[in-house]
Amino acid sequence: LIGRLMFELPEEMGLIAIAVQQTQGKGRSGNVWLSPMGCALSTLHITIPLHSNLGQRIPFIQHLVSLAVVESVRSIPGYEDIELRVKWPNDIYYSDLMKLGGVLVNSTLIETTFHILIGFGFNVNNSNPTICINDLISKFNKEEGTKLKPLTADCLIARTVTVLERLIDIFQEKGPNGVLPHYYKYWVHSGKQVHLYSEEGPTAWIVGIDDYGFLQVHEEGKGVESVHPDGNSFDMLRNLIVPK
């Protein structure tokens, strides 16, 4: 629906579709994404000028959205220590243990404007099939003796979009260095050692993200190399970076 509408609207008009449940959501590599009740699910349309900081670094958008989801919770007073984190390139995690959300970005360049469709979904009030944000809040309350209230999907979608607008403005003004320190604060990879290609593959250490949003790894004897997000996947359970 949004894909058909987005070219008909004035550029200054934003557009978002929100679903309560998904049976045919799209994931990476053409995967079908099933989403039960209790998830925050939406597709957002934004426009980015080609000749802008972000327009020259479009892969960064998925990182900004992942960060915005985490910030939508952790920027609420009292919720700063809820263990919600970002995983390169486009996932939202509970610590480094379990996935509870993801981001998918599609872009179309028309003349000098990128039309970006951002799909994002994350578990808010559904404990199955993995874990959800309200489970983390409940766990935190038990451990810390606090009385934080559960959150709603509507609230977190609205907060995510608001935070994303702010992150885009910062990126357009200051470039990657304006947002990367904040991104690193919440990501799961700091100082992690990984294997490349297979469990017997070469060992590398994760260094950070380069100016175009690609993961930088330091392989012994080879220096720092960048790993492209669209051709590789990060298997957290096996600590592997593998070609898709």
TrEMBL record:
Gene: Hlcs
GO cellular component, one term: cytoplasm
Similarity comment: Belongs to the biotin--protein ligase family.
Domain of life: Eukaryota
Gene3D superfamilies the UniProt entry points to: Bira Bifunctional Protein, Domain 2
Keyword annotations from UniProtKB, A to Z: Ligase
Species of origin: Oreotrochilus melanogaster
Residue ranges of every copy of the BPL/LPL catalytic domain listed in the record: 1-172
Molecular function GO terms recorded: biotin--[biotin carboxyl-carrier protein] ligase activity
Protein name: BPL1 ligase
Entries under InterPro entries matching the protein: aa-tRNA-synth_II/BPL/LPL (IPR045864), Biotin_CoA_COase_ligase (IPR004408), BPL_C (IPR003142), BPL_LPL_catalytic (IPR004143)
